[in-house]
Design goal:
The protein contains twelve helices and 25 strands. By secondary structure, the chain is α+β, with helices and mostly antiparallel strands.
């Protein structure tokens, strides 16, 4: 049973999407698990056959108890079921055996490593449900620095965001196991904290392995604390110190960055009261701009960035390799798998936007109300999905999954790629509620504050490049969705209305479908329904 939230102690299996005997591929959704915060999809990290289910639908089980067993078809799992071993221990034995075969001397050398009293081994934490390794973007502590519980040790880049990782221990930072810019697997040696002057060379030589019997309780406590980091914001650490930032880099919590971006405040003008001069929430909220300060434009938070390139003189050739971020690699893996596995096709339709433009102007004239054209498209998609359930499906090899809920994902461009926040139960929300939800989640995504649970479970996706002047494009399906809608720019051009030439405003919508679940006629009918809703916005206000 996985820990899917920072406070989760037990989980309830709401629904099994695989049954005993079914084939399971890596990335397949095994079950929907209800935590103390939400019901989340749990995907398999292994391939094989589902041999056993340990927790039935509707049953509750503590974190780390046996949830399921996956292996080779017909494999004997009697010992596992009789308690002679657990699935976890079997995996550990398998890995230890492989390590022994490949490096017997190194493995035996780590078995006898004793950890000195007061020393804590910090491993690379799992900060998202799909994270397998992490990259240290920056260290906020150096070897020899004093560390208090709650201090920010490092900024760690996962496959979904860059998150601050705080220390759960006090002491001196004795060793850094992963340098800035380096990548390491989850649970590998990240750092060692302990009393100043302690010799930790044996622990370093062992790669962080310690005597298991001596550290069993400490390891359990350490793991629980590090897992807590998965969804916590490091903004909770607001210790006051009077030191200021130096060297040109601005240290600020993600929440402080978001507030500053929303208010148009230049963080360079704000004095930080947090650790090492770090700018925290209250610093931004209490900031009073002076006449000499220059506010940063709000739009800056939503722009994408690329590495600075200095071009060489004519006649010369030069190239530079830039390491791919975890997010970039995750995007490549996901979209590559989608493009190369799904036989897709695309359909384009042109929509008359005159009524939509007039309706939006009327709606936004209401105080404290803001609705975008994209919000109208998202709402129209949700309503069209209700009428065309075949589009609200997922391909599952032997079966097609018909989702009875509608969760629309909205693609958002961030500095390092693309994230897809999910608007849950979109069909039950009003236009203004959708608008508020999109702005909130998009802001979190751009400021790297969005949680993994807020990007999971979409049944359909909308991607909009109209604000960049792109009038027509096709997108790659965001699996396991069966379709994605590409939204172009509103273009003013000559049109024919009632047999007369007139100036009109049109927008092109392109639906890309997985042909395994959605046929051409179904996609075309969906687009016709979508066109009707958008061209007659009053139908979406009922």
């Amino acid at each position: 049973m996985p820990r899917l939230s920072d406070t989760m102690e037990e989980g309830v299996v709401a629904n099994w999407l695989k049954q005993v005997g079914d084939k399971v591929d890596e990335g397949d959704i095994l079950a929907e698990i209800e935590t103390d915060k939400a019901t989340m999809e749990f995907e398999s990290f292994h391939e094989g056959t589902l041999l056993h289910i340990g927790v039935q639908e509707g049953e509750t089980a503590p974190v780390d108890t046996l949830l399921a067993i996956i292996g080779e078809e017909g494999e004997d799992i009697t010992e596992l079921l009789n308690g002679a071993a657990t699935a976890a221990s079997a995996e550990e034995e398998k890995e230890e055996k492989q390590e022994t075969e490949s490096a017997p001397e190194e493995t035996s050398a780590t078995d006898d490593v004793e950890i000195p009293e007061g020393v804590q081994v910090v491993t690379m934490p799992r900060l998202s449900d799909t994270m397998t390794d992490g990259t240290v973007a920056s260290w906020l502590k150096n070897v020899g620095d004093s560390v208090d519980e709650g201090d920010i040790l490092a900024e760690i880049e996962t496959d979904k965001a860059t998150m601050e990782f705080e220390s759960f221990y006090e002491g001196t930072l004795l060793h850094v196991g992963v340098g800035e810019g380096e990548t390491a697997p989850v649970d590998s040696l990240l750092a060692i904290i302990g009393p100043e002057g302690t010799d930790v060379s044996a622990i370093v030589a062992s790669g962080g392995a310690v005597n298991k019997s001596a550290k069993k309780e400490d390891t359990k406590e350490s793991t629980a604390k590090e897992e807590k980091q998965a969804t916590e914001s490091a903004a909770s650490s607001e210790k006051t110190q009077s030191t200021n930032t130096s060297g040109g880099r601005i240290f600020a919590s993600p929440l402080a960055k978001k507030i500053a971006a929303d208010k148009g405040i230049n963080l360079a003008d704000v004095n930080g009261s947090g650790e090492n001069g770090r700018i925290i929430k209250k610093d931004v909220e209490n900031y009073t701009p002076s006449t000499a300060s220059t506010a940063a434009p709000k739009a800056e938070a939503s722009t994408t960035s690329t590495p600075a390139v200095t071009y060489v003189a004519s006649g010369e050739e030069s190239s530079e390799e830039v390491k791919n971020s975890q997010m970039r690699k995750a995007i490549a893996k996901s979209l590559g798998a989608s493009k190369f596995s799904a036989p897709d096709f695309s359909l384009t339709i042109e929509v008359d936007m005159d009524n939509a433009m007039a309706s939006r102007k009327t709606i936004n004239a209401i105080p404290d109300t803001k609705v975008s054209f994209n919000d109208m498209v998202v709402k129209a998609c949700a309503m069209a999905l209700q009428k065309h359930p075949q589009v609200n499906t997922s391909w599952n090899n032997d079966t097609t999954v018909y989702h009875k809920h509608i969760h629309v994902g909205v693609a958002v461009a961030v500095d390092e790629g693309l994230l897809v926040p999910v608007i849950k139960h979109t069909n039950s929300l009003s236009l203004t509620q959708i608008g508020a939800a999109v702005r909130d989640l998009a802001g979190k995504a751009r400021n790297k504050k969005i949680q993994p649970s807020e990007m999971q479970g979409s049944t359909f996706t909308v991607s909009n490049l109209g604000m960049f002047g792109i009038d027509n494009f096709t997108s790659i399906i965001n699996q396991p969705n069966s379709a994605i809608l590409s939204v172009g720019a509103i273009v003013e051009k000559p049109v024919v209305k009632n047999g007369q030439l007139a100036v009109g405003n049109t927008m092109k919508l392109t639906l890309t479908c997985d042909h395994r679940t959605v046929d051409g006629a179904v996609g075309a009918q969906f687009l016709q329904t979508l066109k009707t809703f958008i061209e007659n916005p009053v139908t979406m206000l009922a």
